[in-house]
Design brief:
Number of helices: 4
Shape: globular
Number of strands: 4
Strand order of the largest sheet: 2-3-1-4
């Protein structure tokens, strides 16, 4: 039986680009070794992540996430057993908009693409539906 968990948190005020890159490197390695998939969205100093895999592995990962000082105000939104994965081939995606775009075109295109993906993505569980909903709210804030 598979298990999924969604959490929401706020980034620490001093979170840097190097911190994000470190999170990605460690996450991709851990997720690969533990057959964990999911999706992480970081936008406007807020994180929302859906993690899926074997229950023990997901809970082990979340215990590590809880101790991470790079964010605070962690809240588990949903955790439940599932029949199958929503993000079968996603280990950890990341996109950084170009900082040279004076008009933020790169960020706007990312948002539009992510929002379109949220409409097209399969949503086999209540948690996956809720993940896409929260992600859409975060991206539409600004």
């Amino acid at each position: 039986m598979m298990f999924e968990l969604i959490y929401y948190s706020t980034a620490s005020h001093d979170l840097s680009e190097n911190d994000i890159l470190n999170i990605l490197e460690n996450s991709r390695d851990f997720n690969s070794k533990n057959e964990i998939t999911g999706c992480l969205l970081y936008h406007n100093n807020e994180f929302v992540q859906l993690i899926e895999g074997e229950e023990e592995a997901v809970k082990k990962l979340y215990a590590k996430i809880e101790k991470d000082k790079r964010h605070c105000n962690l809240m588990i939104v949903i955790q439940d057993n599932i029949a199958g994965r929503s993000f079968k081939k996603w280990s950890m995606a990341y996109y950084k908009p170009a900082t040279t775009d004076a008009d933020n075109l790169s960020e706007l295109l990312f948002k539009l693409n992510f929002l379109a993906l949220s409409q097209l993505a399969e949503k086999p569980t209540e948690a996956s539906k809720f993940f896409w909903y929260i992600s859409t709210l975060l991206l539409e804030e600004n």
